[in-house]
Amino acid sequence: AQSVTQLDSQVPVFEEAPVELRCNYSSSVSVYLFWYVQYPNQGLQLLLKYLSGSTLVKGINGFEAEFNKSQTSFHLRKPSVHISDTAEYFCALGRSQGNLIFGKGTKLSVKP
Amino acid sequence: KAGVTQTPRYLIKTRGQQVTLSCSPISGHRSVSWYQQTPGQGLQFLFEYFSETQRNKGNFPGRFSGRQFSNSRSEMNVSTLELGDSALYLCASSIRDRTQNTEAFFGQGTRLTVV
Questions:
Q1: Is A42 at the interface with chain B, CB within 8 A?
Q2: Exposed/middle/buried for B95, CB within 10 Å: 0-12, 13-18, 19+?
């Protein structure tokens, strides 16, 4: 069965510090991986995606992620966070049937 | 290009009632998926419609149903509402070409509260 595990439910960090949000997946078939961000009372916004090709994926707002097949991971990173990055982040696995399987989410809290 | 539009944004219903939520996908997108988001269960897939046909379904009771119209707009219906149906319901649209898995674009969601 396919699944996604986000290893941290909450990550506090100071402004301008680097951050890594961890995501591990389980799948026996080729994977498509996504990171979404959700601000309070909003829908999900796509940050970046991995479909194939280069394992280092760059997204919006300075975020990037690295696909690691051997470790079945797709960790999200940003070298310097801002207060405005405070939000909940979701890692998702795209199934061939079309739907997404989401992790439980990581709440990023950026403190001044 | 307009994004995914969900209406209404907020809804309060009483147990036992039924509710219909609406979603207009991005122009040109033929696939519409619905997800339920709750604090306890997180984001769970309800169903996907493509060209007016349900193509995939999650593990939800038959009280949850949906349909898609010829213009790709979709509605989901929940009958005999229960308190546990209180959630944020998110609609996502995608091109959904069978040759590749493309990203889904989400609407703002409909916040349903059952009292």
A1: yes
A2: middle
Closest by CA position to A55, among listed A31, A85, A22, A78: A31
> How many angstroms separate the Cα of B38 from the Cα of each of A30, B21, B87, B113?
29, 17, 5, 11
Structure tokens at A7: 């290893």
* B14 and B115 Cβ atoms separated by less than 8 Å: yes
| A32 CB within 8 Å of a chain B CB | yes
Determine the pLDDT at residue B61.
96
Q: Does the distance separating the beta carbons of A46 and B105 come in below 8 Å?
A: yes
Tens of pLDDT along B74-96? 999 999 999 999 999 999 998 86
Residue B99 burial by Cβ neighbours in a 10 Å radius (0-12, 13-18, 19+):
exposed
Model confidence band, residue A88 (pLDDT cutoffs 50, 70, 90)? very high
Contacting residues of B for A32, CB less than 8 Å apart? 101
pLDDT under 70: residue ranges of chain B: 1, 96-102
Asked if B69 and B6 count as a contact pair (C-beta separation under 8 A), the reply is no
Is residue B47 within 8 A of residue B35, CB to CB? The reply is no
